[in-house]
């Protein structure tokens, strides 16, 4: 089969054809498309420019879309020329998307001017939305493509480029007569970027309680946190009384974070018993954020009875935050010592980050822990104690000595957490530590690309002590895409994730993210993901896995590049986790619901085809048993 494909590729090159071979598994049977994609992966901008004038529109589209991932401001004018002159609508849409991905004042000006010239509504929508991403001050585009305007507002709001006068425009787009896509963009604008819209409570409340789309209700419910009034709280109460979708309930619970604890306490305590545990966890997090001292005894009694360890740890932290009671602290430590669950132990150490009297205990656990997630959580707890309002300047010397010992562990996560504190000028460690050579010694224990995430704060800390600007921490090109593997992956390839909670089936998007899909397939075939844990679960946001340490700091000694496409994060999108652009490796996440703030920032390489009910019930510490890349025969049987 491989020989047949290769001979077909050679014939295709000779004929300058556009991959019409019916036996090809994906578009990368065309060697020209492989060439363009490889240039994208290598960030070879000049070579890509040469395809902008190719007679084949498919190649022009691939080449211009590459700049959505490269994001080269020096190429804006060339991409702009494609947008303004290309005769193919798909190419112009790709150019508009690429310009929106490239932050530059020139991008904003080009996109705004392009509105008047463009006649195709789909291209126009892309132009208008892209304009919202890059403009510094949003002004209504002269067009009536409502979905484009709604999402343009949302994108601009994320960058603080909208004003109060834009709220009325967005409110009108929440009308149920508008398309779901339009309403969703408007609802997310209010949830994320809009400010000072108290007078629109009726509009927001109606969307949160009556919109036929759960996605719209979710976003509108999240917006209620920005309207702190008895009337807004009544809307939240209505959601909790009537809403069936747990994700809308989670957002309503999280919206209560803006209210005084006395007003929301009963709702939050009741929510601890929600059917979906994510709602209860969300409630415990709001309790932690809003608690006041007079309620600590009531919460202490409730914490002791909780069966869910995440909720219990959050309540413990809430209590210690307002009352450093010895009996409660001893209960936390005893629970820690009894637990055989490293994730529970990590959460209990996090609870103690509110207790100055627990510093010695946390330090001891940091230095003796043999589990990465416990060790990294101990380090993070110590840093949080340093930032705690209870911290006294007289403690600084003690913490400085502790930080030196922590750095000497050589643990990347510990080094990263401690370096963030040492490099924070507001904490003032440059005045206390006279010999910072331990920082450069710690750096020698780390390497790129494996330790990029830890090296970023470490380089910043070293630069702070040396009174200079921190250098950028970037990975040199490594781990080129295995194009032979890519060509062997069908465009509808499925991967089956067997977990301790059930089975999740993914559809891999090899034509949109070839490097990421090939990476995932190769790791799965090596059984890399087997027995690894879901180390991060954020209610109504994501579940995350693929870390070789189990705490989110892990990576292998290679990295791959970001691959951004116009695909949006919806329910069940599978994205690559990263520590910044072009730092992806082995970690990935699955979304509980639409998360548009991730669009164009994290590679989407798959979608959940079945098993979302499993995704919604995965918790921290649940395990991947195996990942199976379905055979061609198994896929045909479906």
Automatic annotation (TrEMBL):
One of its GO terms (molecular function) is peptidyl-prolyl cis-trans isomerase activity. The keyword Isomerase applies. Residues 502-618 form the PPIase cyclophilin-type domain. Gene3D superfamilies: Cyclophilin-like, Leucine-rich Repeat Variant. Keywords: Isomerase, Rotamase. It is an enzyme of class 5 (isomerase). The keyword Isomerase applies. This is peptidylprolyl isomerase. It comes from Chryseosolibacter histidini.
């Amino acid at each position: 089969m491989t020989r047949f494909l290769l001979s077909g590729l050679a014939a295709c090159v000779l004929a300058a054809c556009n991959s019409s071979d019916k036996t090809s598994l994906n578009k990368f049977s065309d060697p020209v498309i492989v060439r363009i994609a490889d240039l994208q992966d290598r960030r070879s901008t000049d070579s890509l420019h040469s395809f902008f004038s190719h007679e084949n529109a498919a190649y022009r589209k691939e080449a211009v879309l590459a700049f959505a991932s490269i994001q080269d401001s020096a190429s804006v004018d060339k991409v702009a020329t494609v947008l303004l002159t290309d005769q193919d609508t798909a190419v112009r849409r790709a150019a508009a998307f690429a310009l929106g991905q490239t932050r530059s004042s020139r991008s904003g000006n080009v996109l705004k001017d392009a509105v008047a010239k463009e006649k195709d509504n789909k291209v126009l929508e892309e132009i208008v939305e892209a304009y919202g991403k890059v403009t510094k001050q949003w002004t209504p585009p002269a067009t009536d493509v409502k979905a484009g305007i709604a999402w343009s507002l949302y994108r601009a709001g994320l960058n603080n480029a909208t004003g109060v006068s834009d709220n009325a425009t967005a409110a009108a787009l929440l009308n149920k007569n508008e398309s779901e896509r339009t309403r969703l963009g408007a609802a997310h604008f209010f949830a994320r970027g809009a400010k000072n819209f108290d007078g629109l409570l009726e509009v927001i409340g109606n969307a949160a309680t009556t919109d036929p789309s759960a996605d719209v209700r979710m976003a509108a419910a999240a917006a209620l946190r920005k309207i702190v009034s008895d009337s807004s709280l009544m809307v939240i109460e209505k959601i909790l009384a009537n809403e069936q979708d747990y994700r809308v309930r989670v957002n309503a619970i999280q919206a209560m974070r803006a209210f005084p604890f006395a007003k929301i306490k009963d709702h939050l305590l009741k929510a601890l018993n929600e059917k979906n545990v994510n709602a209860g966890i969300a409630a415990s997090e709001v309790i932690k954020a809003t608690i006041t001292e007079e309620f600590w005894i009531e919460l202490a009694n409730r914490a002791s009875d909780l069966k869910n360890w995440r909720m219990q740890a959050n309540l413990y932290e809430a209590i210690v935050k307002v009352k450093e009671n010895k009996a409660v602290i001893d209960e936390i430590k005893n629970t820690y010592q009894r637990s055989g669950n490293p994730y529970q132990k990590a959460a209990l150490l996090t609870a103690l980050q509110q207790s100055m009297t627990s510093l010695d205990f946390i330090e001891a656990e940091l230095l003796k822990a043999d589990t990465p997630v416990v060790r990294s959580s101990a380090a993070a707890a110590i840093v949080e104690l340093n930032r705690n309002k209870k911290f006294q300047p007289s403690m600084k010397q003690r913490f400085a000595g502790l930080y030196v010992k922590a750095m000497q562990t050589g643990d990347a996560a510990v080094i990263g957490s401690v370096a963030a504190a040492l490099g924070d000028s507001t904490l003032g460690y440059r005045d206390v530590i006279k010999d910072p050579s331990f920082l450069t010694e710690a750096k020698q224990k780390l390497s790129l690309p494996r330790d990029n995430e830890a090296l970023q704060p470490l380089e910043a800390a070293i630069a702070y002590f040396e009174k200079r600007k921190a250098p950028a921490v970037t990975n040199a090109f490594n781990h080129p895409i295995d194009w032979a593997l890519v060509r062997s992956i069908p465009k509808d390839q499925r991967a089956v994730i067997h977990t301790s909670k059930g089975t999740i089936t993914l559809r891999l998007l090899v034509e949109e993210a070839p490097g990421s899909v090939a990476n995932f397939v190769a790791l799965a075939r090596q059984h890399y993901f087997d027995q690894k844990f879901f180390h991060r679960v954020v209610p109504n946001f994501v579940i995350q896995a693929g870390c070789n340490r189990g705490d989110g700091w892990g990576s292998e000694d290679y990295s791959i590049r970001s691959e951004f496409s116009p695909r949006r994060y919806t329910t069940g999108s599978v994205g690559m986790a990263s520590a910044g652009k072009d730092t992806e490796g082995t970690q990935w996440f699955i979304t509980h619901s639409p998360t548009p703030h991730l669009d164009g920032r994290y590679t989407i390489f798959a979608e959940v085809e079945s098993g979302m009910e499993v995704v919604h019930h995965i918790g921290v510490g649940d395990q991947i048993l195996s990942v199976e890349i379905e055979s061609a025969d198994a896929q045909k049987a479906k």
